[in-house]
Design brief:
Distance between the termini: 38 Å
Number of strands: 15
Number of helices: 10
Shape: elongated
Radius of gyration: 21 Å
Structural class: alpha/beta
Order of helices and strands: HEHHEEHHEHEHEEEHEEEHEEEHE
Strand order of the largest sheet: 6-5-4-9-12-14-15
């Protein structure tokens, strides 16, 4: 097989994955018509993608790899996924924050990366239900007995019941959030799709996220491309309730076009704003 043929196969498989994630499944006969190739070629593509764990083959086609809707990885496990993409997203998101504003950061590894980029933004009030995010700002404070760093953030930690991802959720967190109002919310998500909107495997976290969104003037989702097409047990918002999604360059072009029909802003780290 020539290099050109290899390239064409990679392009084809990327399109197939895009369709599987966007539509929740594809059929072989649909792909042969759309891509103008034989059944045998499509079946080889599906075999290759299945061996890589990118999709699951079913009779006559393929579907996304199934993940239990209640599965919630721990913070350390999630930190190992797409670290460079999360850092790029955090840099872009941090540029949206003006000095002296009140912001909120939900739980999550991308909001944790964002917190580190916000340390030099002066005079922030930061509301968070993330133990890890609060630790970032706490550890940046000067040692006890020294003069407080001028312009250091004021941090409000909500309290609540701790999840495997080190977010604080439940009635205590919800009550604290409802009493506050902030200019900007940065929201990490487990999954995002047109059909299910924003979702999480944790029912209590879903309600806390709803409270955070209601208390914010503007909602910014920070999530890398791997979150697209994932659906957790509980949906807590439609895409139309989001003002901006900050993501990375791994998000396929077809998905981008679909997303911008649903929400006002899509920012892709490393690219010009759409």
């Amino acid at each position: 097989m020539t290099d050109n043929q290899n390239l064409l196969a990679e392009q084809r498989r990327a399109l197939i994955l895009d369709e599987v994630r966007r539509r929740g499944g594809v059929r072989v006969n649909e792909l042969t018509r759309r891509l103008s190739v034989s059944d045998m070629t499509i079946r080889r593509d599906l075999d290759a993608l299945a061996r890589q764990g990118m999709l699951a083959k079913v009779h006559g086609g393929a579907v996304p790899v199934a993940e239990p809707s209640t599965h919630e990885p721990g913070f350390e496990a999630k930190s190992a996924l797409e670290p460079s993409a999360k850092d790029e997203i955090a840099r872009v998101a941090a540029a949206l924050v003006a000095p002296g504003t009140a912001i909120a950061l939900s739980g999550g590894t991308t909001t944790y990366a964002l917190a580190r980029h916000l340390l030099e933004v002066p005079d922030l009030t930061v509301v968070t239900n993330s133990v890890r995010v609060a630790d970032v700002f706490h550890e940046a404070r000067p040692n006890a007995g020294s003069e407080a760093r001028r312009g250091a953030a004021t941090v409000v930690l909500t309290g609540g019941v701790r999840t495997p991802s080190d977010a604080l959720v439940g009635p205590v967190a919800d009550r604290a959030v409802r009493s506050l109002h902030f200019d900007l919310l940065f929201l990490g998500v487990h999954g995002i799709s047109v059909e299910a909107g924003l979702s999480t495997p944790n029912l209590a976290e879903a309600e806390t996220n709803r409270c955070l969104m209601r208390s914010a003037r503007r909602v910014v989702v920070v999530a890398d491309h791997t979150k697209w097409g994932k659906v957790g047990l509980s949906s807590f918002a439609d895409l139309t309730e989001v003002d901006t999604w900050v993501t990375d360059r791994g998000l396929p072009g077809g998905v981008r076009a679909e997303v911008v029909e649903q929400l006002p802003g899509l920012l892709v780290a490393g690219e010009e704003p759409m």
